[in-house]
Structure formats: C-alpha cells, structure tokens
Amino acid sequence: TYHSTLTGWRASGERVKRGLYKSRDGWVINADCNGSANIMQKVATQLKLNLAEVGRASLTVPQRIDLFSRLSKSYRKRSEASCRSTERSRRSLQTEA
Fold it and tell me: Per the confidence metrics, is the pTM higher than 0.90?
C-alpha cells in the first residue's frame, strides 16, 4: 500500500481467517466492515460525520441485501443461466488440466 510503513503504527487486532478480523477486545468483525469503518474514521472530521450512531452491530453483523429480489424475473433467469454456463465452463477447464 501507499506509505505502508508508518512509524509507531501497530495493528489493533488480527485477521482470524478470510473475511474476519478479531479486535484486541475479542470482537469478531467482518473485515470489509472494519476497513470501511477505519476509512470513515479518517474522513469523519473532513465530512463532518457524526460517528456516534455507528454501533458495534453494524460491524459484527452487517446487513445482507438480496440484489436479485429487486430485479425483474426475466433478468434474474438470464443472469442465473449465465452463471450456470460460466460454472460449467470453469469445471470443464479444470477437468482438462
């Protein structure tokens, strides 16, 4: 990363496994949410954001959004067919290798 070696910097936790971060206090946090919160913290003063409303729950249990439910049925069927086709192609390439 850009200027990744900062003097005096120390990690406040550790990566448990892919996608999960464990804080020094023992909280297991979604890694993407943790990164977003860190970025938000850096720019909060510049954008005049009130971070008091950002609770621990938003980091430990992020909201899931079903993108497909908002799409038309015909578009969903085309997308699912395309995904199946891509998966079949990937599998056939793996068996050839």
Answer: no
Closest by CA position to 67, among listed 54, 59, 76 = 76
Task: Please state the domain extents for the chain.
Answer: 11-64, 67-97
Please measure the distance between the N-terminal and C-terminal CA atoms of the chain and give it in whole angstroms: 35
H or E segment to which residue 37 belongs: helix 31-47
**DSSP codes of every residue in 56-78:** THHHHSPPP--SGGGS-HHHHHH
Both tokens of 8, joined, read: 């005096």
Q: What region, left, alpha or beta, does residue 19 occupy, with left being phi > 0 and alpha being psi -120 to 50 degrees?
A: left
Name residues whose C-beta falls within 8 Å of residue 14's C-beta, 6 or more positions apart in sequence.
21, 22
64 forms beta bridges with none
33-49, pLDDT tens digit by residue?
Answer: 888 877 877 887 777 77
